[in-house]
Amino acid sequence: MRVGFIGLGIMGKPMAKNIIKDGFETYLFDLSSDAINELAEIGGHACNSTKEVAENSEIIFTMLPTGEHVFQVIFSKNGLAENSKPKTIIIDMSSVTSEESKELASKLKSYDIHFIDAPVSGGEPMAIEGNLSIMAGGDEKQFNKALPVLKTMGENIVLFGENGTGSAAKLANQIIVSTNLVALSEACVYASKAGIDLNKLFEAIRGGLAGSAVMDAKMPFIIERNFEPGGRLETNYKDLKNIQSSATAIGAPLPVTNLVKEIFSSEIVHGNSEKDHSYVINFFERMANYQTSKGSK
């Protein structure tokens, strides 16, 4: 099976690497030639355009920053729609709105091209390990054809239903992730200012009801004040805007999520968009006029 992969960023590069390592003939494109060349060294095929990927692939994955980028890659003059063979499966793993995924699927039908929305959760560490959660929406028959490739990237792979349901599931996931990040940050600032060592707090509560995958993944970095991006703050903010847009479209009020979005928005305004999303703690530190100490001892 010949596989295409477009978008070799923080998440896309390790995902594509796992496809290559599992023996699939993989055609690669990204605006970064360094990312392409790195994967070409382990057996991937470097392409000079999305058109070249389309002409050589039976299944094509896109992992891009926004829905606008996805539409451009698929429907531009040299894009996937015009240059892919009939019956090609395009699988978008980006975080976009449910409405955008439905529109992509609808437009691609006229090209006799199948579409699956299959965004992921787990961040860079799980992308590297190939243990991502993958939330898919689309035709079951096409999903099953793609499943062997999806299994190189993910461990928990669920088909929710028709196109758009995978994207909706990812947005629901991001409500929980972003709200957890905000709650964790607020709790850490409160506890630290109250004189509690955050290492001991982490040890005490991680196994209880307050524990979470978000806490396990991010609290060690908060304690060490290591905010190099594994997941950028701007990405969470983009997802929160998508959630708001999608929720408005279906009439689902999200009062807590909208408050969380404004907290992330504040950090964007303060120039922190490229920091790790755990740096949302800075919002609460500014409010408290207090910064947690590195190592928290």
Q: How many runs of DSSP E, i.e. beta strands?
A: 9
Q: Which regions have little confidence, pLDDT < 50, spanning 5+ residues?
A: none
* Form type: globular
Average pLDDT confidence is 96
CA gyration radius, whole angstroms: 20 Å
β content, as a range? 5-15%
Number of helices, counting only DSSP H or I runs of 4 residues or more: 14
Q: Could you say which structural class the secondary elements and strand pairing correspond to?
A: alpha/beta
Range of helix content: 40-55%
In CATH terms, what is the architecture of the largest domain?
3-Layer(aba) Sandwich
Instruction: Find the CATH superfamily of the largest domain.
Output: NAD(P)-binding Rossmann-like Domain
Text of the CATH class of the largest domain: Alpha Beta
Task: Classify the fold: give the CATH topology of the largest domain.
Answer: Rossmann fold
Report on the biggest sheet: 6 strands, parallel
Helix and strand sequence: EHEHEHEHHEHEEHEHEHHHHHH
Q: What kind of oligomer do you see?
A: single chain
